[in-house]
Protein: Spermatogenesis-associated protein 4
Organism: Elysia marginata
Amino acid sequence: MSGLSREVLKWLQSLDLTWQIKNPKWDLSNGYLIAEIFSWYFPQDIQMHSFYNRQSLELKKRNWYLLKNFILRNNIDLKMEDVDGTIHCREGAAAQLIENLYEILTNRRVKKIPPEIEVDYTDHAYQLQLPMHARSTAAKAVKNNLRLTEVLADQNLITCAQKPGWFSDRSVFKSQRIINDHIEHRRQERLSDPERFGIKPTLGDRCVRRPEPPQQIHSEPSHLSNTTDIPAELEWKLIWAKNALPYKE
């Protein structure tokens, strides 16, 4: 039960679930225990005879279809990324989902140290630890971050169909989004280390940037100045002309 805090563990034990959660990554992927947790708080809405305690992809889709409809109907604030990561057994997604359920259903906060890098259930944090020559290419990034079960479970990932409401954050073709993120990470690497990639400054970068003319500060006319009768916006032109040309009587 690694990855879960002490208060969450005590809360799960108090629910008297069908079996003990030893590894959230695998035990919660089919949605059966999630439905059982909801049945303790919403007994009229969740009927356990409608859910299957199996690991096949089709039964997973059926269980989570019922759970998603229930979550939407009751306006439960859960992230679609956590749900998808739990279904497809992504590392840390099930633990994050359980902690969010604990906070929503018990109205308490989980005491934990916030992560240094935002969790997005991709291998970006791992790639940052590797030297640049060992980091994945675009094709490898798609292979690492897009699982076969995601494609089989959701044909919209292939057809690029739009989804409303709760699914709006997944309206972009997922593989294309992975490639776009990979290109953005590469662009940041090129900016951080231009010598490695042999980037030469462009003509615009090499041009001399002349400073803008200083703004004239308007002051009160002085009796020592001989240009008190000239408008303030023309003073600097007169001063420049006097310095550039010899003075003649």
